Amino acid sequence: MKKPGIRRLCALLRDKLPTVGLIIFLSLCYCALSLLIPILTGDAIDYIVSTGDVNFDIVLECMLKIAIVSALTAIIQWLCTLLSNSVALYASKVLRDAAFARLMQVRIAYIDGHSHGDMLSRLINDVERVSEGILMG
Fold first, then answer.
1. Which among 41, 97, 31 is positioned nearest to 65, based on CA atoms?
2. pTM confidence score
3. Per-residue pLDDT tens for 26-83?
4. Which residues of 14-53 are buried (b: 16+ CB within 10 A; e: fewer)?
């Protein structure tokens, strides 16, 4: 199966591929930490046996672990968002620069033959779609 769009996008983001790799790694860490919170909650519940039989030391330890994991999850999510925005803005800039450079090479007859608003709309919408796709992906 050919994927020319992905190849072109990888070529476009060649300078940002380490950042994309870091985003993927941080996303996997985020998923793992998010799955750890219910496990820690279950561990805390296991030490609540009955009304008078609660091991508060272990429950408090589990609650502290949940707080730490939640804080790490929030920090990782923030970093992923920050890095994704950086990559998306970089891609938008590269695409706009390439489109402008191409537009400067086009014959004047082409520009006169097409609606200016249509050309600008296509350019802006295409760049915006790629940027949104990177942010969502």
1. 41
2. 0.76
3. 999 999 999 999 999 999 888 888 778 888 889 899 999 999 999 999 999 999 999 9
4. eebeeebeebeebeeebeebeebeeebeeebeebeeeeee
Cβ-in-10-Å burial (0-12, 13-18, 19+) of 87 comes to buried
Conformation bin of residue 55: beta by default, left when phi > 0, alpha when psi is -120 to 50? beta
pLDDT at 3 > cutoff 70: no
The two tokens of residue 10 are: 């990888």
Residue 137 confidence (pLDDT)? 67
User: Would you say how long the chain is, in residues?
Assistant: 137
Distance of CA 2 to the CA centre of its chain: 24
- Considering just the CA atoms, what is the radius of gyration of the chain in Å? 25
Which residue, among 27, 9, 7, 34, has the nearest Cα to 87 in the 3D structure?
9
